[in-house]
């Protein structure tokens, strides 16, 4: 574990600029596992969305080392005030495998529950074993899973997740 070198906080206005500045800290592989498209940088449409989306529709928790974002977990509602949201987690390459993904994901799940989300979904590349294990650990084994061969589609009922966490 990293200990006190990383701090966690809810998303704040201006954090989109911190993400845009990540540059080579996120490899194309890391970007592909998050966005499921080949992209050399965080897509502009995504930065525009997180800059402008109301917190009731989209929210996140960021992990910071100094003033640099080293990871974030987000949830976005499927419908404007719906009870279902999609969870996504990103950790910059140099900080992977240090527990940051788990830490931001757990905090994002807590925020989702507090905002009224009752079900989370997540799409994980079948080859991304670390992310699949993260979702499994968040769910405490209580989830549904569908696979199309390349992508695992999870649904986690948060009432059970909150008890399992």
Write a structural description.
With 165 residues, this protein is of the alpha+beta class. Helices cover 34% and strands 29% of the residues. The protein contains six helices and seven strands. The protein has a seven-stranded mixed sheet with strand order 1-2-3-4-5-7-6, with helices on both faces. The longest helix is centred in the middle third of the chain and has 15 residues, at 100-114. The radius of gyration is 15 Å and the shape is globular. The two termini are 19 Å apart. The model has no long low-confidence stretch (mean pLDDT 91).
Dominant shape: globular
Structural class by secondary-structure content: alpha+beta
Query: What's the helical proportion of residues?
Result: 25-40%
Major beta sheet, strand line-up? 1-2-3-4-5-7-6
Tell me the major beta sheet: 7 strands, mixed
Number of separate strands: 7
In short:
Helices cover 34% and strands 29% of the residues. The protein has helices spanning 15-20, 28-35, 44-52, 100-114, 129-139, 158-164, and strands at 7-10, 58-65, 68-77, 84-91, 119-125, 144-147, 151-157.
């Amino acid at each position: 574990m990293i200990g006190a070198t990383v701090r966690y906080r809810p998303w704040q206005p201006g954090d989109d600029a911190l993400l845009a500045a990540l540059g080579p800290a996120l490899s194309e592989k890391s970007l592909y596992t998050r966005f499921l498209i080949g992209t050399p940088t965080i897509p502009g449409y995504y930065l525009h969305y997180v800059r402008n989306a109301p917190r009731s529709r989209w929210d996140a928790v960021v992990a910071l080392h100094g003033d640099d974002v080293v990871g974030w977990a987000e949830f976005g509602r499927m419908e404007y005030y719906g009870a279902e949201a999609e969870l996504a987690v990103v950790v910059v390459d140099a900080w992977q495998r240090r527990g940051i993904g788990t830490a931001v994901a757990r905090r994002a799940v807590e925020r989702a529950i507090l905002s009224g989300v009752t079900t989370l979904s997540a799409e994980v590349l079948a080859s991304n074993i670390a992310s699949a294990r993260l979702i499994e650990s968040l769910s405490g084994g209580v989830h549904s899973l569908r696979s199309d061969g390349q992508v695992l589609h999870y649904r986690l009922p948060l009432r059970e997740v909150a008890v399992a966490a």
